[in-house]
Amino acid sequence: MDAFLPNDRITFERYQQVQFGWTRDQLTKYVGTPGKVMPLSIDNQNIIQVQYQGLSPSIIAIAGFGFLNGKLFTKTQFNFDFTVNYKITKEQCDRIQIGWTYQQVRAAVGNQKGNVVSESGTNGNTGMVVQYTCIKDQQQKVDGTVTLAFVNDKVVSKLQP
Q1: Segment 50-92, tens digit of pLDDT
Q2: Which CATH number fits domain 12-78: 3.30.1490.20, 3.30.70.420, 1.10.260.40, 3.30.1450.10?
Q3: Which of 67, 70, 92, 141 is most buried, by CB atoms within 10 Å?
Q4: pTM value?
Q5: C-alpha closest to that of 155 among 96, 115, 88
Q6: Which key words are in the record (predicted)?
């Protein structure tokens, strides 16, 4: 695997500002470097994945941007959002239901947005993966992570400890 170049870095704030529909040239201009480019071929579609690393030398943080036919359609991040722990109780975690909207989930967990680890959008459809730390109960040894997948603003999948 090719290594990142020293300047292939992005902040979490800049990552959040990147918009669906941008071209690779727009991303490169915005970030200031081309990133690590990884061409893919899936079902003969023109897909390019561009990755950047976070600014911290001590934490591995990766941001990925996926381009389909030259337009940004997905973005993901790993270890970028440490601004808040996004902790919820086991009761809050258990209350979340398949079919709820993102706003219903936020209302149930004290209006926390959660750690948005992945977003996608193309042809009027949207997707998002959000994680919360579910505070352990007496039977658990450690906190767990609840992962919610949204399609068009509705919970379609819920993985919890």
Answers
A1: 999 988 777 788 899 999 889 999 999 888 776 567 889 888 9
A2: 3.30.1450.10
A3: 67
A4: 0.77
A5: 96
A6: Signal
